[in-house]
Amino acid sequence: MLSFLFFIYFSGLYSSIAANMEVSNVFVGNEDHYKGIHVDSVKEPCENQSSFSLKLQDSLKKWSEKNVKAIWFKVDLKNVDWVPILAKNGFRFHHAEGEIVHMCKWLPDNEESCIPLYAHTTVGAGGVVINSKGQLLVVQQRFQNTPYWKLPGGYVEPGENIATAVIREVLEETNITTMFKSIIAFRHSHQAAFGCSDLYFIVELEPISDHIIKEDKEIEACEWMEIDKFLTHPNVHENNRLFIRQYLTSKELRVSILGQEAIHPISKKPQMLYGISNRKE
After folding, report:
1. Residue bearing the bigger pLDDT, 120 or 139
2. How far apart are CA 203 and CA 127, in angstroms?
């Protein structure tokens, strides 16, 4: 009788250990708010390709049983040998950044994938800077076939607000320090750099300084130009003329588009909310 009880005890203990081993042989990952699972190769490494392959198989089975929809693997360059194994198991490339590649898989065979495409729109900003004489700050970029005059500006960096970006770009290109006043307009175009769509915001900035020092790497020339001259200059694109006319209209109608810092109600991350307001001169 005693030996039988010992058999029962050790059988249960072995089952518990086996269950724990089974759990440890699946990737844990992090769950997003869409209930997808994200696995990081640095945080959950494997000894070799064989152990990774086995762990992946067990994980996919477990996730399917739990009705998980989307699986994401963030693979570091030092774990590049994971990539062909993931590909053989139905994962596809989603995007890459530096030394990281992101691969994903939609698990349900009977449902159309809801995994979104990677970010497909670039964002830029240009500044309308008017000095106390009513002159407009303009630049000519280097390496152009035709030396067009344009508004200073450039790309918004990752994690950078629109206003911060255009203030930085104006300073880098012309050495003019500015402060945000209003968003005036924006352009939305397609098939731009890298085949992406492109959003370009036109922002009114108030100059704090007025002494121009040209940036030599990208800028051929910069100056304070009379607005009427800019609007009729043969080397100014129609888009830029339109932006200045929009600036003049917003000033005449006394309207502004101002930003307000806030926290996103779902992601709990910082955001900027923009809306129409009465212009304050």
Report:
1. 139
2. 5
Please answer whether residues 225 and 174 qualify as being in contact, where contact means their C-beta atoms are separated by less than 8 angstroms.
no
* Residues forming a β-bridge with 219: 141
Q: How far is CA 146 from the centre of its chain?
A: 32
* Whole-number Å distance between alpha carbons of 69 and 163: 38
Residue 104's alpha-carbon distances to 80, 130, 220, 262, in angstroms, are: 15, 48, 45, 31
For residues 48 and 140, give the distance between their C-alpha atoms in angstroms, rounded to a whole number. 55
Order of strands across the sheet that contains 100-106: 30-31, 37-40, 70-76, 100-106, 92-97
Give 237-246's long-range contacts (Cβ < 8 A, gap of 24+).
237/148, 237/150, 239/187, 240/149, 240/150, 240/151, 242/185, 243/126, 243/128, 243/151, 243/184, 243/185, 243/202, 244/128, 244/136, 246/184, 246/185, 246/202
Give the whole-angstrom CA distance, residue 153 versus residue 184. Answer: 14
54-97: pLDDT as tens digits = 999 999 999 999 999 999 999 999 999 999 999 999 999 999 98
Q: Distance between CA atoms of 150 and 147, rounded to whole angstroms? A: 9
Q: Please tell me the distance from the alpha carbon of residue 80 to that of residue 112, in angstroms, as a whole number.
A: 29
Q: Which domains does the chain have, with CATH numbers?
A: 30-106 (3.40.630.30), 121-278 (3.90.79.10)
Which 3 state secondary structure label does DSSP give 193? helix
pTM of the prediction? 0.75
Q: Please answer whether residues 207 and 177 qualify as being in contact, where contact means their C-beta atoms are separated by less than 8 angstroms.
A: yes
pLDDT at residue 195 in the model? 85
Per-residue tokens: 160: 């950078």
